[in-house]
Amino acid sequence: MSKFWSSMVKRTVPYIPGEQIDQKDILKLNTNENPYPPSPKVTDAIKTELARGINLYPSPTVEQLRDAIASYNQLAKENVFVGNGSDEVLAFSFMAFFESGKAIRFPTVTYSFYPVYCKLFDIPYEEVPVQRDFSLQVEGFFQSEGGVIFPNPNAPTGVFLSLDDVASIVEQNSEQVVIIDEAYVDFATESAVSLIQTYPNLLVVQTTSKSRSLAGLRIGYALGQPELIEGLTRIKDSFNSYTIDRLAIAGAEASFRDKSYFKETTQKILQTRSWVSDELKQLGFHVIPSQANFIFVTHYKESATYLYQQFKKIGVLVRHFNKHPINNYLRITIGSDQDMKLFLTKAAQVLQ
Ligand SMILES: *Cc1c(COP(=O)(O)O)cnc(C)c1O
């Protein structure tokens, strides 16, 4: 604590991201990055933009990229807000749609950034318990005071909530904003984007960090009806006019235009997820059915803390959250087939 800190800084409890270790021989399966490089068209577009020069400011309204995202989702540019990673989009959304004195709701097991934003912006919250199989308790989100947010598929479990259930939560909160954080939706069966035209209180947030192999580029976006998008734009323009740089705009636009490459790498991860899940069951793991690019597992004999430490010793990084009721689980990112073959060998070694 410093006497120079504002009350806002004093009350913050910052988010702790997964370890980023710059070491060549480590098998990094802890932050849900994509093992495949982005489309070659993305790197070409960035090089072209760089050759054009970066002495001029980028577009403050990110027109071209919003067009590409809108067209990919069969929406209009007015339905799209772009931010510097979806974490920024989420932070702006908390500021734009949630407020002090009105408790919002999210699940007890969820993305750990939500309580961080609540503390930062002084927004009260209620946690809705998840069920024993980690599925969401739908009615628990009905008639909230200040709004609702949850990831779908949920993090860090990978459990997916059906679109019908999402729609009923949105319907039962018609005076508040419901934010669906779809960071992993490209690995799942369906997106809530199809509900946007029906519900003015629905905001869908997505990212290029996971399914589009662009975690290093920092592009996230929100999709919703124009009045929600305008709310976000007002926050952004009261904060930083240029949150997205020229190279990121060019690269992300190219990614949305190259549909076949995206489809291919996503499909690959789904195949890998399926066989890795089967193999881990053979090794005595209980694997929660996942619709994301990671799996959430627990072992019938060895504790998650022990396994996390043993894995780390032999150069395998997975994610362990030391928090009830998930302290005996590990979250493992799906890498390439080669990564996962190595992982399974190491898992067998640890369990010997
Ligand atoms: C990874 C992740 C994000 C943040 O993604 P960025 O776009 O890289 O900031 C947001 N929500 C959830 C649930 C995530 O897992």
Write structural notes for this entry.
There is one protein chain. With 352 residues, this protein is an alpha/beta fold. It folds into 2 domains: 7-37 and 260-351, Aspartate Aminotransferase, domain 1 (Alpha-Beta Complex); 40-258, 3-Layer(aba) Sandwich (Aspartate Aminotransferase, domain 2). 37% of the residues lie in helices and 14% in strands. It has helices at residues 7-11, 40-52, 63-72, 86-97, 113-121, 163-171, 226-236, 246-257, 259-282, 304-313, 337-351, and strands at 27-28, 80-83, 104-107, 125-128, 148-151, 178-181, 202-207, 220-223, 285-288, 294-299, 316-317, 330-333. It has a 5-stranded mixed β-sheet with strand order 2-8-7-6-5, sandwiched between helices. A hairpin with a 5-residue loop joins strand 9 (285-288) and strand 10 (294-299). Helix 4 packs across helix 7. The termini are far apart. The model has no long low-confidence stretch (mean pLDDT 96). Residues 85-87, 111, 151, 155, 181, 183, 207, 209, 215, 220 line the site of pyridoxal-5'-phosphate (PLP).
